[in-house]
Amino acid sequence: MLGLMQDHPLLISGLLDFAARYHGDTEIVSRRVEGDVHRTTYAQVQRRAAQCANALDALGLQAQDRVGTLAWNGYRHFELYYGVSGSERILHTINPRLHPDQIAWIVNHADDRMVCFDLSFAPIISAIAPRCPGVRHWVALCAPEALPAELSALPGLLSYEALLAAQSAQYTWPVFDENTASSLCYTSGTTGNPKGVLYSHRSTVLHAYAAALPDVMNLSARDSVLPVVPMFHVNAWGVPYAAALTGTKLVFPGPALDGKSLFELMQAEGVTLAAGVPTVWLGLLNFMRDNALRLPALQRTIIGGAAAAPAMIRAFEEELGIHVLHAWGMTEMSPLGTLCSLKNKHLALSKEAQFAIQVKQGRPIFGVDVRVVDGNGTDLPWDGKSTGNLLVRGPWIASDYYRSDDPSPLQDGWFPTGDVVSIDPDGYIQITDRTKDVIKSGGEWISSIELENIAMAHPGVAMAACIARPDPKWDERPLLVVVRREGSTLDRAELLQFYQGKVAKWMIPDDVVFVPAIPLGATGKMLKNRLREQFAESQSAAAG
Ligand code: AMP
How far is the centre of ligand 1, averaged over its atoms, from the C-alpha of 5 (Å)? Predict the structure, then answer.
């Protein structure tokens, strides 16, 4: 017997309709590429998303055609999120920090018909356009008078504002199967070609509900949320959808992601929640520390995408009074998987005991099932100690990659995350490593994240990466690559001494290399494979 409930598909257009109807005057504030701050509302976004959809119709784009974007976090990108997906096309967000060769490959693999871009990315468009014959329209996100002169000869060049101005602000969003594809995002794989993750309307709306939950982002119509995490990286962790679902004010930082710019925007717009990767938070933390500043409205910040060092979590909590929610997820998971918030029974614990939980990556959100297994696929106990491979499944987790020649990555219906974790009896997950980053020493595994966290707690360390160095006796040994904090004279011996008593002796890194900077990937994560090439192999050769 089927239930007697109405069958309404979960569609992305419904989120914007809701926000415009019930939160029409709630603001969307954006720092623009031009440098100024622009203000709009959900009601205006709905009108312009409708104009955008009409423009796509007028240009002859078909249902399910891919529309690429190379854009910062801002209101025009937000309009495209809804105008493109709402009208049954697929929004393909592209990471502009990738090499142009990789961007051209992605555009062709996705078979994009149109690419919309912020003016800062005009040089990328110049570089890739001749190699992307399938793209019929290159749409600059600007007024017609601001079209970049360097692209004047580009066939198919259009101004976004001119396109919208020619269209009606009335549009009836089509109704279709909620499992229809809505958006596409390529993982910035460190090896091989990127892989496309194809989200659906259903997965996106369910994920938005989950993101808004109290123990997740706890979003409400009283919040002001600033996603530092880019809209080209897993849909800014779903914030653009969850904010519409809850009528939350949105604040978009555009290209200005330095500590000072973020601080000023957060202060001016009363931001109550911000979300981003640890490397960005380091900039804000240092700026606020150096200038003895506070953000009284900012209650909480979500840090994820890479491990947030306990020292950073502590600094936010104790020095700045900002609560940190550590989160874990993946592009293949839309991305939210776990988020670290305490349970009622933890409130009676000491601050230190609470902190020991808070530094973990958190417990699964409803909708995400997890398992931890050994190399043979046998389940390991949830004792907070046994480490193995993390498997996940759920309605917003990928079942396969887009246009992939490889077999589905699923193992008996479970997606292997490639992360090495332990799970405690309460379900809190702690990531010890990526499978490929773990250091295998004498048959034992050493967690690179644990060794980095210790280094990050030293006041002389600004950033630390721990990598495996080939070793004739132990197979691999840990090598620490460190950026000193400005003014620090920290040396190798002092830093290695700092490890005494904090981990077993055999886990202490063999050596420390000081560098001016650690290379970061397109999504702000440390490029450990680059460091391994640079240091581990060359050093061991030298030692040999
Ligand atoms: P991406 O698909 O680019 O977002 O990368 C996903 C990967 O980032 C995960 O599989 C983890 O290895 C890593 N990651 C994400 N969040 C965290 C976190 N809080 N702590 C440690 N690693 C993380």
Answer: 38
